[in-house]
UniProtKB/TrEMBL annotation:
Protein name in the entry: EAL domain-containing protein
SUPFAM superfamilies: EAL domain-like, HD-domain/PDEase-like
UniProt cross-references to Pfam families, sorted A to Z: EAL, HDOD
InterPro entries (alphabetical): dGMP_Pdiesterase_EAL/HD-GYP, EAL_dom, EAL_sf, HDOD, RNase_Y/CdgJ
SMART domains: EAL (SM00052)
EAL domain mapped to chain residues: 1-204
Domain named HDOD: residues: 198-386
Transmembrane segments: none
Amino acid sequence: MFFYLARQPILDRHQKLYGYELLFRDGESNAFPDIDADIATSTLIQDSELQHTLSEITDHCPAFINFARGGLLTSLPTLLNPMEVYIEVLENVEPTPEVLTRIRELRNLGYHIALDDYRFQSEWLEVFDCISIIKVDLQAYTFRQLQALKYQVRDYSIELLAEKVETQEQFNDALEDGFSYFQGYFFSRPELIKRRRINPTKAACTELLAETAREEFDFRRMTVILQRDVALSYRLLRFVNAAAFGLREKVTSLQQAVVFLGAAEVNRFVTMAVTAALTDDKPNELIRLSITRARFCELVAEYHQQPKVQPNQAFLVGMFSLLDAMFDEDLETAIRRINLSPAITQALTQRRGLLAFYLGLIRCYEEAHWRKVEAIARRLQIAHNEIARMYLQASEWAQEIIPTDYRNAESEK
């Protein structure tokens, strides 16, 4: 399963790359689909930030992301690192008191704000001190309107961006008119980007939505449900360790993440992560295998009882051991996006430490490398019958969550 987006470069006066506007896509047609703007923004952020990172997609340049009124007034913008993004307020957003207050709040949090196709509504003047860029559609603005805009921004630190620059002549005219940034087909059409997506299972999504509806938030129950799904686990750790939270120490377990975030933030994460996932009907067998590994490693840690190894760390090692196959990229790149503890990272990328032995044990068991299984079992002092018992228990646990015939059951609905 894949997700799609397009990026169109934004250049400075010397035609050097400044940033990219990111545009939602739902397939390879490279055109904006018939979809609500808030849903498009939410899905784009979920896919680009909670699974990959914006800096990967924009080559470490600023990302301009469109926000309609609904998304702007929610906490969705704060999922993004203010050092990496411009909050681009769409032209159909009315400057109501709620919108103006929200813009000031976001600016105080360090976000840069861009107005798309400013239409000279006087209310916007109240937040001109919060605006960094105003985008001007060269195909729609008259010469008189442009002069009026330049007069209005003269006392503010607002730069102008020329949109829909399609010819050399238009670029030259925009340079003379004092524009600082430029975007349009003259430089580049939007480039389609296709990336691997791993989606949560519908079973986990349904359970999580039910939990968010409860009057009393159950931290333990929420953690248990999240542990059953590799996609949700991965995204939650990306979410909690995002730069916007300014953490001094890494959050390295799901239980720690849930407790740290608290009920409101966890429910917000669940709502965002589940919304797009419920549209996908194609479960991945890799997910079931990763869940089996996660539970097996956790059981081994509980049996082994080493003070330096926590069962929840072992669980994450098994859970994330197949990210390379899920994302079609090397494991180190995928792991780098999550601030895991050194012990987990070393186990996954360098195969070092006790956690690496736990993971190696189930890998060898899966592949029927019995001599290696025997060697690791001796190292960990685990009897063969215990290994078989734990593997069977882990397999049954994964089977309950994602049955083998899940794909067929879903397709018959």
